[in-house]
Amino acid sequence: MQRLSAAGVGDLLAGDLRAFGGPSTVEPLAGRIRAEQISIVLRNTPLVMVANILNAAIFVMALWGSPEQTKAMLWASGIIAAAAVVGLRARSSFQSVKPRSVSRRTTQNLVRNAFLFGTWWGALPVLFFSGATSAVQVVITCLSAGMIAGGAASFSTIPIAAVAYTLPIFIGSAVAIAWVEDAVNLPVAILIITYATTLLRAVLAHGFEFTQRLISQAESERAIRRDVLTRLPNRFSFNERLENAIVNATQFDQKLALLLFNLDNFKNLNDRFGRAMADALLVEAAARLRKSTRESDSIARLEGAEFAIIAPGDCRPDRIRSLAKQITDAMRAPFLIEGRELYCKVSIGVAFVPSDGSDANQLLRCVDTALHRATTLGAGPIQFFSASDDEAAARRHALERDLASALANDQLSLAFQPFLDLGSDRIRGFEALLRWHHPTLGAIPPSEFIPIAEETGLIHDIGQWAVRTACLAAAQWPCDLRVAVNLSVVQLKNKALLDGIRTTLSEAGLEPRRLEVEITESVLIANFEDAIALLESLSFLSVTVALDDFGTGYSSLTYLRKLPLSRLKIDRSFVQDMLTDADCAAIVRSLIDLAHELRIDVTAEGVETPEQLDYLRRVRCDEAQGYLIGKPVPVDEIPALLRGRSVRSEARE
Ligand code: C2E
Ligand code: CA
Ligand code: CA
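Above: the input record for the complex with calcium ion. Below: its predicted structure, written as tokens.
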């Protein structure tokens, strides 16, 4: 109890308004409030001290030549000396940078100084009033009233300092008046008490309002910096923290690690299970992230499912790797949300100050590149930035820049790869595959430039061009041959796609049934509703739809039942392994049976050996595609290829 009240007095003297029933707040904010309060007091201090010196001088002049002159000079020299010191100090500290936070002790010192000044002025009426002439009494009364009013005004942001300053002057004045043997004492005492109360109330009201304003200012500043969903710092706050952390690390010659962390399959989860569940998952992920990091690590949510961690201090690669591992482990456990178990796939990129960069932008670029490697290149979920990444990033930037003009500069072309019908041993059509011949870098594989086209949105134009070029080519072929074109996820979101295909078909004069679009499962997972609508419209036009790379993604057999599919393309990886791996062979066989029951044709991709082709024939696969049948060729090689339509398979027999 005793300690509590001691703490209460401490709070009081530190300018905390809780003592008066004012707004209360947490200590870091209280430190900021003190800084604001003191800075205003300091701004006024030099002027107030000048007033002290002038008033003291006026008083000495009033008593000049009287017997009290020496006493008055002694009293005044005390005030003048103290005022000069305090005034000069206040001036120099006001000119230096305003601190963001001020300790309790600083405010307590200020309150003590206010009290000492007040006491000195309070002594004035006690020492001089009773023996003075009435003219001097008027001077003393004016000076006391002036000091009370001026002091209360200049300390109004720290009410306790105003009290510490004015109270001794009130008391001194009251004592002096009580000594005067006069009947007016009582009304004067009542007046003084009334003035004092009014003044105190005004000062407190101002102090409350001032503090309240600072608190709400701080709260709105905090809101700007906080992510509403996870209550973690947001990108805005992260940028500030990163800048500060880099400055600190550089100044003290220390290392700093930046980790960028992403829930890779978040978008899919969001699309499949809806926003509410995805949000709940992010909140849980943020909680796990808090648990698996140290107090000193600073976490932020940047956007979507991307989080960043600034790790200062011990940044040995081993420790950072174990921190990253702790995070991936924490995220690996299933998320139980609304009775469902959701699983997250996470990737983490890491970069260091100073080895990878010493400015925020550069560091972010590095960590982004490392994360990109972790996410897309299958190199493992935790990746540290390395200089070779930099080259990869530079190449990517160059490709990004050049792809924009590739179409206009005629650098894109289509290669056509044949499908072989296993029943008739005849070529049934070709798949159109994009090729980019870069003027300086040579042939760029589609696996490299198509993701760039998707990210930049260039895929819409390029995809449209591919459909058009493929249809124009196919229109020149015998009419039992089809052309297959690949569509990417991004294209399905484009409402203009369907119209584009319709117009292209009529302009090229190609029967719609001769066009096939190939989509991958990832397309379906990411945009099931969009995909269904689009596929149905395409079927309505008689354009056929093939499901590409079957078996590599989530491989849900429900797609086969729910979608208007004409064809299933078994991924190359199954074909490669089916002769050596019994499980693989069983999968291939049962997939073919299931597809046939659903009246869906099956094409096996990536057939490279006669043995594979033999096996596929035995299990009644409909078509084969692969280097054995034919590599992708330029359009002008197709007539020659068609002239020997089944040459390869005949040669084999
Ligand atoms: P995909 O649709 O699965 O295309 C088949 C890929 O396998 C082609 O690679 C082809 O050259 C290759 N391939 C064919 N037979 C064999 C074989 O026997 N052995 C091996 N090892 N590989 C074989 P490519 O041309 O590099 O295309 C890669 C991917 O790029 C394609 O995979 C497709 O997803 C995408 N792509 C290509 N053209 C386009 C396009 O016009 N639009 C879109 N959105 N994506 C395209
Ligand atoms: Ca394909
Ligand atoms: Ca494929």
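Notes for the reader.
The first strand starts at residue 256 and ends at 263.
The chain is about 60% helix and 15% strand.
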